[in-house]
Design brief:
The structure is a homodimer of 200-residue chains. Chain A has 200 residues and is mainly α. Chain A contains nine helices and no strands. In chain A, helix 5 packs across helix 6 and helix 5 crosses helix 9. The N and C termini of chain A lie far apart (56 Å). The relative contact order of chain A is 0.11. The interface between A and B is large, with 39 and 39 residues. The first copy, chain A, binds a DNA duplex (18 and 18 nucleotides) through loops.
Chain lengths: 200, 200
DNA sequence: GTCTATAAGGCGATAGAC
DNA sequence: GTCTATCGCCTTATAGAC
């Protein structure tokens, strides 16, 4: 039995449901603003029962964060891998942005838990999640450096500030995105378009 | 005696100190992650004593939020007012961004409390602070609309997404800014430069 | 696997002494 | 204005029945 099968087997169905509800509440109300009783209530369970599946609240939020980061990494990697070998820097960065934003807004409860709570979590949790977070950021760093090396991003551009500005603009989208008006891909296209081509 | 004098008179010195400490802790640890005993401890006081100055924790955070918004509005308005009559759209928006970022990073405890906690606060607090927040956002909306009307921002630019992207990029700066490397004005200049001129 | 019951401690807030 | 003392409630977490 593969890891994936195990994850979705009935054995762990309850655990998955707990994670889903937790992700939703952590991302909406914050880690400190979410109490285990609320999570249990939503599942018609009692708070104590959660401890059969998780050994602590910290462990629970840690799993949510790890799944979120995995989701976003997978989505962005898939978007990049789907590109042809000879894709331009522009295509590469726009594809990455679309993947990032899709993971954030579509299955966003897990991913936006980290955005909403980063800096507000117990230190022990933060430390554990930082490693994979740095890895994800490094992927972007690489793509941006390559684009600048090829001359597709001007040499005078501060790419550290650029990367942080991209994350800033994209991540903030969770605070104002409403389904219906613009598609996720359109928003990513618009936001990256500002940066790539300018607005003037 | 003017309002300003009253604010700084010895009569309200303690209240001001409580606000300062509260702003720092709310912005760093979040509203729900900050307990009144921590605030009192920092001031060599007991938690109960805070209630001589504030009627509740909600009232306390509300005052912090209002001061923060006032700070940022004042700073941005001052930056705009300092411009000559015939300033260009570019100068206007860059000046606003510098003012915004300065208020955010320099006296940032008050201002970043709202950024850090928005959506994680009691509804009653959120409602009260929304009015002035909308007013501030409307100032930006106006400047951006005027710039597009003058043709300084291209007609095909989605200015709603633009405004939200500017806030996203600028506000996120609180998460990574370190004194020493780049000045606040340089960061604002760089970030607005990406948007105005593009990076390619 | 989930329940009830409860421990052990933290929280915001209040009352009254000083 | 600040203190001590405490109330009433809520929180995470555990133990043992079912």
């Amino acid at each position: 039995m593969s890891d994936l099968d195990k994850k979705n087997s009935s054995k762990n169905k309850t655990k998955t449901k707990i994670l889903d509800v937790s992700a939703r509440m952590f991302s909406k109300q914050g880690y400190n603003g979410t109490v285990l009783r609320d999570i249990a209530n939503e599942l018609n369970m009692k708070a104590g029962s959660l401890y059969y599946h998780f050994e602590s609240k910290e462990q629970l939020v840690l799993e949510v964060l790890n799944i979120g980061l995995q989701n976003i990494t997978d989505k962005v990697m898939a978007a990049i891998d789907a590109l042809p070998e000879d894709a331009t820097s522009r295509e590469r960065l726009f594809a990455a942005a679309k993947g990032h934003l899709t993971a954030l807004l579509e299955k966003g409860d897990y991913t936006s838990t980290s955005i909403r709570n980063l800096g507000l979590l117990p230190d022990s949790v933060l430390e554990e999640v930082m490693v994979s977070r740095k890895k994800y950021e490094n992927m972007w760093r690489t793509w941006i450096e390559e684009a600048q090396a090829k001359g597709d991003i001007r040499a005078d551009i501060n790419i550290k500030v650029l990367r942080l500005s991209i994350f800033g603009a994209l991540n903030r989208t969770v605070a104002w995105y409403k389904e219906g008006e613009l598609t996720i891909n359109e928003i990513a296209e618009i936001q990256m378009g500002f940066l790539w081509d300018g607005i003037s």
